């Protein structure tokens, strides 16, 4: 079994290893205004992050993290868009926290915990929300991907790296979530410098589209583990609405090497 299939198995295991529905909370939806102000101040429109600025504003940043920690989403009081907004912002905020806690660092992957391939930076359990312990993998795979069936989240959650979709310089809100996700997807696919090169006959895509191809093509669990004939070709149907060029159905697809240097 190759590395990609082994990675897929670990991701699948994470989908069942943590269940946010187990948390008994009576919280109400929160405001993300504090995080919004910090993002506007310390992130450029292109997504370059001033981590030193976040460190300087650590008291205000901690205030937002405390707000997250004391208000776990629940299905009783939180509409679906409020839940998804919370988890996207939480993922991005805790990623920033992870970087500034270890700053200076050249790459998020330089932050180590546990044993090699089995334990990555995304497996560090440093997040506690109303008594439930999480790592970044839990939030992305066990909650966001599992609960919301929204492929555009891959352009919204940010892994603090050059090849990641930009960290948006505003917080996500339930009222504007659809608009923000559409803008993130369009910006991502039209970023020729970092992520995607598009023509009618050939497209070179970010490796995100290879790693999570089933999220974009709805091929199911078995395909997620073992692959499927022509699976990557179906990505064209997803990409086409976001670019000005009409990509041919039989266009050649390649994937870019992913750069993990810090998005600073």
Number of structural units classed as domains: 1
Helix and strand element order: HHHHHEEHHEEHHHHE
Mean pLDDT: 88
> How big a fraction of the residues is strand?
5-15%
Q: Determine the N-to-C terminus distance.
A: 36 Å
State the secondary-structure class.
mainly alpha
Spatial shape? globular
Described by strand count, sense and barrel closure, the largest sheet is:
3 strands, mixed
* Count of separate DSSP helical elements: 11
Keywords:
264 residues; mainly alpha; 3-stranded mixed beta sheet; two-stranded antiparallel sheet; globular
Characterization of this structure:
There is one protein chain. The chain has 264 residues and is mainly alpha-helical. The chain contains 11 helices and 5 strands. The protein has one domain. The strands form 2 sheets. The chain has a 3-stranded mixed β-sheet. The chain has a two-stranded antiparallel sheet with strand order 1-2. It is globular and about 50 Å long.
The gist of it:
The chain is mainly alpha-helical and 264 residues long. The protein is 42% helix and 6% strand. It has helices at 3-17, 33-42, 51-56, 58-69, 80-101, 136-148, 177-189, 208-211, 213-217, 221-226, 235-239; strands spanning 127-129, 132-134, 197-198, 202-205, 252-255.
